[in-house]
Amino acid sequence: MDLPSTSSQSTGQSAFQTIAVVGLGTMGTGIAEVLAQAGREVIGIDISEAATRRATAALAAATARSVARERLTEQEREGVLARFRTFTELSAAADADLVIEVVPESYELKQRLFRELDAIVRPDTILATGTNALSVTRLAAESQRPERVLGLHFFNPAPAMKLVEVVSSVLTAPPAVEAVTLLARELGKEPVSVGDRPGFVADGLLFGYLNQAAAMYEAKYASREDIDAAMRLGCGLPMGPLALLDLIGVDTARTVLEAMYASSGDRLHAPAPVLGHLAEAGLTGQKSGRGFYTYAGPGSSTIVRDAQTPLDGARLGEGRPVATVGVAGSGTMASGIAQVFAQAGFAVVLAARSQEKASAAKAAIGKSLDRAVSKGKLTEENAARTLERISPAGSLDAFADVDLAVEAVAEDLAVKQELFAALDKVCKPGAVLATTTSSLPVIAVARVTSRPQDVIGMHFFNPAPAMKLVEVVRTVLTSDDVHATVREICLKVRKHPVDCGDRAGFIVNALLFPYLNNAVKMVEQHYASLDDIDAAMKLGGGYPMGPFELLDVVGLDVSLAIEKVLHKEFRDPGLAPSPLLEHLVAAGCLGRKTGRGFREYARR
Question: Of 447, 455, 469, 527, which has fewest CB within 10 angstroms of its CB?
Fold first, then answer.
């Protein structure tokens, strides 16, 4: 069978000049807009006349906005509108060089569509499915010409999102993949080539993470607001996972996860029961007006107050007075936390194992403040006052009068327990004792003291002066006034506190590291390349960094340690660290700090 050549035509474009889009919902309409804007003749097909009218109106409105913003001339707009024709009969696709289907996610519906297209289109017409949940191989097998069937997965909204996943099955002919990849580039998109598995790359990683967030909420481990704030502020994501589930559609997410679980058998992909409960109740998210959150109306993105919304300015009770803060440690995190408190006006005692180390840590803070001054974020006077508030000390004995003691030493339980036993002896009665651990049980350090009710987790994120999030971790023994004290302190130092229980990974790491581990498994299974996975998550998921970029920055040894803690706590086989990650750590390839991790870096 002859397939379209990847060579350019006399017009300088690929072989696809006439393209049919079957299914004119939001995604189909968006794809049609992209194609028409790029000079293609677009045949829009939907069995609903109302859908065809909405698609035509949407394209008219979108192009009018482009004219108003001077991105199109009126003449160019008329050309775009003229290139888009709509029909309600599938026979209109007869002259198409490429057909892209974006009908609802149903094997029965899509398979019937492909069988009908076989009888309508030319032998060399390529058939592309826009599915993100169903097997492209299974769909191709139903076609008379499976070699011309592939996946072409755009992301919503299609005109704005750059990523396109080009999905080939074991049956797909390479020329078809090459032709569609060329088209995607001509549309101004970034195509990534992936194999056939539910969710492909971006959704395959994204939906597992969303599912874990839904399960975390369902377990009442943290509020919906705190889960979403933690992932936005702790990871720089554009939306929290529960708000994103509402945007995608709870029912859609459940369908994708069901397909992923059927393929992988991984419990991390088994849809959280809350997704089924919401979907069956018709609470599918923004489109219905209610999902995890309540919205102003169906289709609205405006969240309105409901029974679960926290009261504005609600107090947790009276906290303890805090004027002086002790910070134990001399590393980057300790210095950053000391700077945060000093900038907020607190007197700070910075204690290290020696006076020299403490003084060096204060000097590092001075350099950090100088950088802030040079960037115009701080005046020289404020920087000087901040530095004056910090008193370096070579012993924890200097913590005798502090109201709050914060440890930021090595992430080693024995080290932290030894330090807390010392704090218990040194600190005055009523002092709050806080650990910055990111993965260890807070209760384990609290129990070595004679006052576990005064101990709490206060997990800052690195770099502490810049990152707004603090995870506030109560143990079963933490007193209410200690909890209230730390919440108040967070607000005074201009941080956003989120409450969570004393469980491995708290919120951020418990959701982030399984996602990172799954990305490593994709590479380990030769499913996609490092570059394609990183590009997919940045372009398709809005992540500030791809998973492998982030792993190399965090440190592969740190990442492995956290994943081991999560696996030990939850005993889920899906959380077992990837052997590839373990091998790289064993080889000393720890990321940027060693010059080599998943990628190689120039040594400084």
Answer: 447
- Could you give phi then psi for residue 245, rounded to 5 degrees? -60, -40
* Residue of 258, 471, 549, 563 with catalytic role: 471
Calpha distance 40→167 (Å, rounded) = 22
Catalytic option among 168, 438, 518, 578: 438
Locus of tokens 């005046």: 379
Q: If pLDDT is split at 50, 70 and 90, which confidence band does 2 have?
A: low
Beta carbons within 8 Å of 76's beta carbon, 6+ residues apart: none
**Cα–Cα dist 181/199, whole Å:** 19
Q: Selecting from 3.90.1150.10, 1.10.1040.10, 3.30.930.10, 1.10.245.10, what CATH number does the domain 202-288 have?
A: 1.10.1040.10
- Give the end-to-end CA distance of the chain in Å, rounded to a whole number: 55
Upstream peptide bond of 463 is cis (omega within 30 degrees of 0): yes
Q: State the pLDDT confidence band at 604, using cuts at 50, 70 and 90.
A: low
Mean pLDDT of 501-518: 96
From 335, 509, 518, 559, the catalytic residue: 509
425/561 Cα distance (integer angstroms) = 30
Superfamily of segment(s) 18-196? NAD(P)-binding Rossmann-like Domain (3.40.50.720)
CATH match of 508-594 with 1.10.1040.10: yes
Q: Does pLDDT of 8 surpass 70?
A: no
- What are the phi and psi torsion angles at 266 (to 5°)? -80, 125
471 is catalytic: yes
Burial class (CB within 10 angstroms; exposed 0-12, middle 13-18, buried 19+) of 338: buried
Residues 51 and 192: their CA atoms lie apart, in Å, by 30
Instruction: Write down the pLDDT at residue 12.
Output: 44
Helix (H) or strand (E) holding 127: strand 126-129
* 438: annotated active-site residue: yes
Determine the residue type at 88. Answer: T
Cis peptide before 157 (omega within 30 of 0): yes
Active-site residue, from 459, 517, 518, 559: 459
SS3 at position 400: coil
Question: 3-class DSSP state for residue 41?
Answer: strand
The sheet with strand 18-22 has its strands ordered as: 84-87, 41-45, 18-22, 98-101, 126-129, 149-154, 163-167, 190-194
Classify residue 410 by its DSSP letter. -
Structure tokens at 488: 């108040």
Class of 324-505 per CATH?
A: alpha beta
All structural domains of the chain with their residue ranges: 18-196, 202-288, 324-505, 508-594
Task: Indicate the burial class of 297 (C-beta count within 10 angstroms; 0-12, 13-18, 19 or more).
Answer: exposed
Do 508-594 and 202-288 fall under one CATH topology?
yes
Please report where in the chains the tokens 């080599």 appear, as a residue: 596
